[in-house]
Sequence to fold (290 residues):
Amino acid sequence: MKRILNLLILAPVLAIAQPGEPKTPIETTELSQGIYRVFVNNAVAVVVSVGDNGVLLVDAGYERTANDLLNHIKTLSMDPIKYIINTHIHGDHTGGNLVLGLNAGAIIAHRNVKEYLSKEHGEGEKKTAAFPEYARPSITFTDRSSVDFNGETLELIHLPGGHTNSDIVVYFPKSGVLAVGDLLFADYFPFIDVDNGGNPFKYLENVQWITENFPDDATIVGGHGPVYNMEQYKQYYITLNETIKVLKGHKKKGMTLEQMKKQRVLKKWESWGSWFISEDRWIETLFPFL
Ligand SMILES: [Zn+2]
Fold:
């Protein structure tokens, strides 16, 4: 069995190389025996567990990349997808439910994910219709849950009010893999979805809680950016906290939001603003909470 698995690990590389197919860039890293981090479209991470019980996913990527993701997962295992766990409500984590959920055993998430996807959702012109029942979570929880799968008992823990009102982390205790969803935008300022219950201070509190409640040798997979070890995740906390301290100091001295942006008071962390949360947007996010 192990030998077969080892052969399968090579398969994704070959799959990418096939010419003539419309392909989403998909990069796979084996984090532990049978646990993969699949990075979809250089943007969103999906964790895949493959083994005797079949296939389990943490997050499902976008709807538009889900067919390519599904084909890719089949190169890791031809077994059916038994569970999809959504870490939170956002479309880059749940959109794939619309394709992958068709043949999945069950979708698991915080109760607020089900509520959100059961109605029209999204913002402005980007409104998404309510998901059909097969693409919504059928197993939900509020605080904690667990799933026995592929030889380990996965721990699912809700951390309230940070990125959204529905964030969970998923820990694979034997493998030491910790999927934290968007409680990690590795190397970038995070998006805080204030309209859906997010709060930057709760976000930081939740990041700190994670650093204090999981082992130092855990492998941390965020929704976006590279995989971190615990030391890097602690540094993520320190960096974000520093940006808050800087802004607080300026606000205390009477500086306005516009002045902070114009004077680029977070210039030191320039590279952290190189993705969709720019320096300005991070300042705008924090300012009302300072
Ligand atoms: Zn998100």
Notes: The mean pLDDT is 93. The domain at 2-232 is CATH 3.60.15.10 (Metallo-beta-lactamase; Chain A).
